[in-house]
Design a protein that fits this description.
The complex is a heterodimer.
Chain A lengths: L1 E7 L3 H10 L6 E4 L16 E2 L10 H20 L3 E2 L3 E5 L5 H14 L5 E4 H7 L9 E5 L3 E3 L1 H14 L3 E3 L4 E7 L2 E6 L4 E9 L5 H7 L7 E11 L10 E4 L9 E4 L5 E4 L3 E2 L10 H14 L8 E12 L5 E4 L6 E5 L5 H19 L18 H4 L2 H10 L6 E3 L4 E2 H9 L7 H8 L12 H12 L18 E2 L1
Parallel strand pairs in A: 1-2, 1-12, 2-9, 5-14, 12-20
Antiparallel strand pairs in A: 3-8, 4-8, 5-7, 6-7, 10-11, 11-12, 13-16, 13-17, 13-18, 15-16, 19-20, 21-22
Helix pairs in contact in A: 1-5, 1-8, 2-8, 11-12, 11-13
Chain B lengths: L1 E8 L3 H12 L5 E4 L15 E3 L8 E2 H14 L3 E3 L3 E5 L4 E6 L2 E12 L3 E3 L2 H4 L9 E3 H11 L1 E2 L3 E5 L3 H12 L3 E6 L9 H8 L6 E2 L2 E7 L6 E6 L12 E4 L2 E4 L3 E3 L2 H5 L24 E3 L10 H19 L8 E6 L3 E5 L2 E3 L5 E7 L6 E7 L2 E8 L8 E5 L1 H5 L5 E7 L1
Parallel strand pairs in B: 1-2, 1-8, 2-5, 8-20, 10-18, 12-13, 12-18, 13-14, 21-28
Antiparallel strand pairs in B: 3-4, 6-7, 7-8, 9-19, 15-16, 16-17, 21-23, 22-24, 24-27, 25-26, 25-28
The chains are: A alpha+beta, B alpha/beta.
């Protein structure tokens, strides 16, 4: 079979592109090198929907961030991905930093950001009582929000699959042959797929993919950012996303609630040799703690439940790259999507589709495109009476597997079955939050392994954490 | 809404012993709500022996000890809701739960909290490095090996020398794994002496004190860990880092009483024990709600869990029957060398009271003294004392009756 479009990379950009393309009468295949979707930059970032005052005016970032916010909120509604417009605050500590606040405000106006206002330290503390008393000026962006990046990616892929897109996991691209008809793409496992158009959404690996067609006109600089995630007990510490005045390194250390009710602090910004380097470091984690406490001194770091490091794909030009190859026909690059990439993801995907159209791809709308994805959390949202009735019809929803996050057997089985199916422990965790709570899977992981083994018809030893080679169990005794 | 006299949350050793004691003290409408399919709690995965020496006069394995109490529960006809997860407890003693039959709401006259504890995770330690498969909390590995029958690794490093870590060092060795070492950040082990001898020394497993894991290596599966020595402030000593190849890291770095329900019910929590503040009958700051076992304080011997749970069961039965204490409550306080004292407050008109405590660090020969104002209520001599071994001191009834000032427990070396 020759697909109309091959999308490489099932991060949030590839996922959204797949969803956009699924509106049309096209055959689309999404290729992902990992065992699941959302395994690169989209699995571990701040989860912020940025107001749009940060990017330089007249850049793609500025345009797509401001355009992208409402598109993202709309997509989140359709996909039933929880989000919150909690607003953000950029904080200046003293007169020296205050000009930066005014500069961001001005830039925000140029970029078309709505609702921006500058607050005194006092006014900000009225809204956010736990802010440091050292904060003297604050830029408040009420349109900013929070969303879970991997949940968004999973939902977008799921919806795209419901609309006919195919997902190939564990497909690590090793060669791309450009032919008259399009592309023959080979994987490290010796598989091949063919497609007429190629969309490169490979995040930190986009330049590697570009090299395979001899069109690497950019070089991705992978940057790691370390985070601390705190217990839900700390989730009320702030309600806004709290930034510090940005530096060259990035937007600095933030303190934010997450949509799931935890508190998130981070990230650092560290250049790394390769995108696989997502180790946390003692130095980095200490820096997160110190700088987060600068904004919000009362954060109780004894409530940390996990730390992690995420990866971002920067590029020296500083802007998003969304363009058709000058050298290779029908090949579109979507690269260097670092912050505000999540905020812009739907706008970026639409821009990418536009580039494909400009290359000659015919876009004819489908008769029935399914815009909505069934809410995976509908059970959680029910009243006790509704839950009672639902459990009586579906008893597995009455058996709690993950006590910390209150996740039932029914929800886990559903996550293993529905698009895109969870294949491993991390996949179940990201879809259901089982293992994501304060005990970090101590109690539930043996049960989740059993459910995966049972649903997939594999043995317990074959169950993985995140793909081949990550089997927690050695052998049967 | 269902109605029961006493609702017990948790069917481990504490919940079972509390149920039996409540029943035997005249309240027969007792129910146990338990998450698991079978009663027994964590004892079910503790297949080693050493249980019951004090309480039952014989040395049993965990499942055998649990079976004794399970039998007692069943022969009394105490109702057990298994695979039932309690989602909320309110101050007015309404218990909400969920199981395969639906949502359950029970109005109780008294509630006994017996939810046990959970293990501190890698995340709480904030150990830097990668996040591969093969990092287990010791109890999770124990469950996988003993209950599910699967081996978790070949070359293992264990961080933390608490009892579960020590027991697992032996268990893994018996199943053919090479346990490279047990590392302990403190200058002493938190485990029972008998476990250090029987689980490490007998198997030639080194115990590195003042040592911790500073980095985890490996992309998909653990490939190695870096360990390092620490100074008195637990700061890493530069240059002492050493890489140890292994495929598994087991964490035995502390137990945390599972008091989320307790907090949500508005019950006062002791910041040191991380359990409820209770009186000598294990009654919490909310009248009619009791707590016992590892949810109240982390115990080292199940025998003492059963004892404590019996006090809670008797207390709850007395409460239901309207036989409550009327005297004032006197606070207890940890003095020199003592980390905490439980109960945190006692009635003075209820006869002799037992105090349970842990010391702050290992000591040689010590004399404990319990005082109130100028009055010495009791003293006790010990040849040695260690944080890993809970101490019990008794205040005689006649001494208690007269006191007004808070009770202070302290020790002096002698």
């Amino acid at each position: 079979m020759i697909y109309d479009v091959l999308i490489a990379g099932a991060g949030v950009i590839g996922a959204m592109a797949a969803r956009e393309l699924s509106r049309y009468q096209l055959s689309v295949c999404l290729l992902e090198k990992e065992n699941d979707v959302a395994c690169g930059a989209s699995k571990a970032n701040s989860g912020i929907i940025h107001g749009g005052f940060d990017p330089e005016p007249d850049t793609r970032k500025a345009k797509l961030n401001v355009e992208g916010i409402d598109l993202l909120y709309e997509a989140a509604e359709q996909l039933h991905v929880p989000y919150k417009r909690n607003g953000s605050m950029v904080c200046a500590f003293g007169a020296e930093e205050e000009p930066a606040i005014h500069a961001l405000y001005e830039r925000g106006l140029v970029n078309g950001v709505k609702g921006l206002e500058i607050l005194s330290g006092e006014e900000a503390r009225q809204l956010e009582p736990n802010l440091s008393s050292e904060i003297t000026k604050v830029l408040h962006a009420p349109t900013a929000g929070i969303i879970c990046p991997y949940e968004l990616t999973i939902a977008a892929v799921g919806n795209a699959m419901d609309n006919g897109v195919e997902l190939k996991r564990n497909f690590e691209i090793t060669a791309i042959k450009a032919q008259d008809e399009g592309f023959v793409v080979c994987s490290s496992q010796g598989e091949q797929v063919q497609g007429r158009y190629f969309l490169n959404c490979c995040g930190c690996y986009a330049d590697h993919i570009a090299e395979l067609v001899d069109d690497a006109f950019y070089q991705i600089i992978p940057r790691a950012g370390e985070y601390l995630l705190l217990d839900k007990n700390e989730g009320q510490r702030v309600s806004h996303t709290i930034f510090q005045v940005p530096s060259k390194e990035g937007k600095g250390i933030l303190v934010t609630p997450t949509v799931d009710g935890n508190l998130l602090c981070g990230p650092t910004a560290q250049k790394v040799e390769a995108p696989e380097h997502t180790e946390t470091t003692a130095v980095g984690l200490a820096a997160v703690q110190r700088l987060a406490a600068k904004s919000v001194p009362s954060v109780n770091f004894r409530q940390v439940i996990t730390s992690f490091s995420g990866i971002r794909s920067s590029e020296k030009g500083g802007d998003f790259i969304i363009e058709a190859s000058q050298k290779v026909k029908n090949f579109v690059h979507v690269a260097a999507i670092d912050s505000p990439g999540l905020s812009s993801c739907v706008a970026v995907a639409r821009q990418a589709v536009e580039e494909l159209r400009n290359c000659g791809l015919q876009l004819e709308e489908k008769g029935q495109w399914i815009a909505e994805r069934e809410d995976p959390h509908c059970f959680r949202k029910m009243t006790d009476e509704e839950k009672d009735a639902f459990i009586k019809a579906n008893p597995t929803y009455g058996k709690i597997i993950c006590r910390c996050e209150c996740v039932s057997e029914g929800e886990i089985r559903e996550a293993i079955r529905r698009n895109p199916p969870a294949w491993d422990l991390d996949g179940v965790k990201r879809r259901t939050r089982s293992g994501m709570g304060r005990c970090q899977g101590g109690f539930c992981s043996p049960y989740v392994m059993k459910l995966i083994a049972e649903e997939r018809g594999i043995s317990m030893e074959q169950v993985t954490k995140n793909g081949l080679g990550s089997e927690p169990l050695l052998k049967k005794l | 809404m269902l109605k029961h006299d006493i609702v017990i949350i948790g069917g481990g050793p504490a919940g079972m012993a509390a149920a039996v004691a409540a029943y035997d003290n005249g309240v027969h409408d007792v129910v146990i709500l338990d998450r698991e399919e079978e009663l027994g709690g964590i004892l079910r995965q503790c297949i080693h022996n050493g249980f019951g020496l004090h309480k039952l006069g014989q040395e049993l394995t965990g499942p055998e000890y649990a079976a004794v109490y399970k039998e007692r529960v069943l022969e009394r006809g105490i109702k057990v809701y298994s695979e039932t997860m309690v989602t909320a407890v309110t101050e007015d003693k309404i218990v909400s739960a969920r199981n395969r039959d639906g949502i359950l709401k029970i109005q109780a006259k008294a509630v006994i909290l017996a939810m046990g504890c959970r293990e501190r995770s890698r995340g709480a330690l904030n150990t830097p490095g990668s996040r591969p498969a093969g990092v287990y909390s010791a109890g999770t590995a124990q469950k996988l090996i003993n209950c599910e029958g699967y081996m978790v690794g070949k070359r293992v490093l264990i961080l933390g020398s608490g009892d579960i870590g020590l027991i697992m060092a032996r268990r893994l060795s018996l199943e053919g794994a090479k346990v490279e070492a047990v590392c302990e950040i403190m200058p002493y082990s938190g485990g029972l002496t008998r476990n250090i001898v029987q689980c490490l020394e007998d198997y030639n497993i080194p115990l590195y004190l003042n040592t911790t894991v500073v980095e985890i290596h490996g992309q998909k599966r653990v490939e190695a860990v870096t360990i390092a020595q620490v100074d008195e402030q637990r700061r890493v000593i530069e240059g002492s880092q050493r890489r140890i190849d292994c495929d598994t890291l087991l964490l035995s770095v502390g137990l945390i009483p599972e008091n989320e329900l307790t907090r949500e019910a508005g019950i006062a929590i002791d910041p040191i024990t991380n359990g409820a503040v209770v009186d000598e009958n294990c009654q919490s700051s909310v009248e009619g709600i009791f707590a016992c076992g590892n949810v109240l304080q982390v115990h080292d011997l199940v025998d003492y869990v059963s004892d404590e749970a019996e006090r809670a069961g008797m207390g709850a039965a007395a409460y239901v029957k309207g036989e409550q204490q009327t005297s004032s409550l006197i606070k207890t306080k940890a003095g020199r060398g003592v980390r905490y004292v439980l109960p945190q407050r006692v009635h003075t008109d209820q006869g002799a009271v037992s105090l349970f405590l842990r010391v702050t660090e290992p000591f040689g020969k010590v004399r404990f003294s319990v005082t109130s104002g100028d009055e010495v209520l009791s003293t006790a001599l010990r040849l040695k004392a260690a944080p890993g071994e809970m101490e019990k001191l008794i205040i005689p009834a006649e001494k208690l009756a007269a006191i007004r000032d808070e009770i202070i427990v302290s020790l002096e070396e002698c």
